[in-house]
Each structure stands twice: as structure tokens, then as C-alpha cells.
Design goal:
Immunoglobulin-like; about 55% helix; four-stranded antiparallel sheet
């Protein structure tokens, strides 16, 4: 009996366990269902939101497509216009090419004639070059002749220039001295010495020399190159150096005036020296009308 009770209680326990298990499964199922229902609701809401967003995008895309269609239509119209314009340009260019081809065909004969003229011109140029070379040689020869004539003319000018002036010839420069003592033999300091310098020469010109009054200036320089006994007056010296004319006023030692009549004129200068001349080289310069005509040196020992 106890065994039967034991078996019955076990069966009851098993039944209770089964009932409890069923209840647990039912509760778990309800929980799972509730979770899934909430998740589905969220997914539904999300899908609804996405649907609305997609509808908005679709609307925007439709509007964009409408705009694009308008732009495409405008572009197509422009393209059609460009195609028409291009076809017109092609036709115009074809006509221009045909015209140029006709001109080229027409100019072919002109080109041939031009080539023939060019060949003739080349022959003429070669002939002119030969003549030019010949003329160049002749010009070179004539230039040499002209240079020779110019040189001869220059020489003639120089000779005429020299022939136009008076020249000094036969210059003679002498120094003479005298010595004497005064009566007072005891006063030897009164003894003195007086030197004289004589400069004589002839002046003459050519047929080209102009006759008339001429001024002759004598400049006597001591060994130190200083002018001796300079005059208070001055005369004008004209010198040519390297093609330049230089004019200066200068004192002189002695001056004479002569009348030239195409005949030689003898000129004498006498210089009295109050003091004895020292040894050295003395220089006499003779100017006629301001131009240096002759230079003579005297050496005293």
C-alpha cells in the first residue's frame, strides 16, 4: 500500500512537473511573442519611415528628371542647330575648296609663266652680277687713281702753301767782342767787355709770294731757353700743329720791317750785350709775318 502511495505521489509529482513545465513554456512563449511583436512594430515603424523617405527621394528624383528632361531637350535643340550650322559650313567649305581648285588650275599656267620669268630674271641677275663685278673692279682702279690724285693734289697744296710764303736763306750768326781798360789802371773793376751778335740773312720768295711790306721778328734764346732782351710789345705767332692752327702773342728781341718786291732782301740784326755771354748753345728764331721761317743755333765755348 505504501508502494502504491509512493507510486501515486511520484505520478502526481510528475504531473505537477509537467504542468509547471507547460506553464513555463507558455510564459516563455508569451514573452517571446511579446518581444517579437514589439520588434515587428519597431521594424514596421522604421520601414514606414524609410518608405516616406524613399517617396520623398522619388519625388525629388522625379522633379530632377523633369528638369533634366528640359535641359536635355534644350541641349538637343542646340545640338540640332549646331549640326545644321556644321552642315552649312561643310557645304560652304566644299564650295570654297572647289573655287580654290578652279583657281589653282587657273593659276597653274600663271605659275609656269612666273617660273619662266624667274628663270629669265635669274639670267639677268647673273649678267648684272658680272657687270657689277666689272664695275667694282673699275671703281677700285679709279679709287686708286683718285687716291693718287688726291695725294698729288695735297702735295701740290703743300708746295703752293710753301711757295706762297717768304723764306730765309744764308743765315749767318757771329759774335764779336772788344776789351779795353780805362785810364785808371788801379781801378780794374771799371774794365768791361762788350759783346755783339750779328745775325744776317736773305729773304726771298717765289712768283706766288705776295709782294708788299713784311715784318721780320728775331727771337734770341739763351742756353736755358729764355728769351733774351724781350721787347715791351708783342707780336702774333701763328703755328700749325697736327692740322690745328694755334695763335699766341709773344715778345721778341728785335724787329725790322722790309718791303718785298719779288727780289731777295738782305736783313741784318745787331745785338749788343752789356754783359759777357756765357758758354752754351744760343738759338735764333726768325719769324716773317708771325710764321716761323728759320731756326739757327750758335755754340759758344
Amino acid at each position: 500500500m505504501n508502494a502504491a502511495r509512493t507510486v501515486g505521489s511520484k505520478g502526481l509529482q510528475i504531473g505537477l512537473i509537467v504542468v509547471v513545465a507547460i506553464l513555463l513554456l507558455s510564459i516563455i512563449g508569451n514573452i517571446i511573442y511579446m518581444r517579437r511583436s514589439g520588434r515587428l512594430a519597431d521594424e514596421k515603424q522604421q520601414l514606414t519611415t524609410e518608405k516616406e523617405a524613399l517617396q520623398d527621394e522619388k519625388k525629388t528624383l522625379n522633379e530632377t528628371i523633369t528638369v533634366k528632361d528640359g535641359v536635355i531637350e534644350d541641349k538637343q535643340n542646340q545640338l540640332d542647330a549646331l549640326i545644321v550650322e556644321h552642315e552649312n559650313m561643310i557645304r560652304e567649305k566644299d564650295a570654297r575648296i572647289a573655287q580654290l581648285n578652279r583657281r589653282a588650275a587657273a593659276n597653274a599656267n600663271d605659275l609656269k609663266a612666273e617660273q619662266e620669268r624667274n628663270a629669265k630674271l635669274k639670267e639677268d641677275i647673273d649678267e648684272l652680277d658680272a657687270k657689277m663685278e666689272e664695275l667694282t673692279n673699275e671703281i677700285y682702279i679709279q679709287k686708286q687713281e683718285m687716291d693718287a690724285l688726291a695725294s698729288a693734289y695735297q702735295q701740290l697744296q703743300e708746295k703752293a702753301k710753301l711757295a706762297d710764303v717768304l723764306n730765309v736763306y744764308n743765315v749767318c750768326a757771329l759774335t764779336k767782342w772788344d776789351r779795353w781798360l780805362c785810364a785808371d789802371r788801379y781801378n780794374v773793376s771799371k774794365a768791361r767787355r762788350v759783346d755783339y751778335t750779328f745775325v744776317s740773312f736773305e729773304v726771298d720768295g717765289t712768283l706766288f709770294t705776295e709782294a708788299g711790306t713784311k715784318k721780320i721778328h728775331l727771337l734770341l734764346l739763351n742756353p736755358q731757353g729764355e728769351l733774351m732782351y724781350p721787347s715791351s710789345e708783342q707780336f702774333t705767332i701763328v703755328e700749325e700743329r697736327a692740322g690745328d692752327v694755334q695763335i699766341q702773342d709773344h715778345a721778341y728781341t728785335l724787329m725790322k720791317q722790309i718791303n718785298y718786291a719779288h727780289e731777295p732782301v738782305k736783313v741784318d740784326f745787331v745785338l749788343e750785350h752789356p754783359e759777357r755771354l756765357g758758354a752754351g748753345t744760343y738759338t735764333a728764331k726768325i719769324y716773317i709775318d708771325g710764321k716761323l721761317s728759320r731756326t739757327e743755333e750758335m755754340i759758344l765755348e
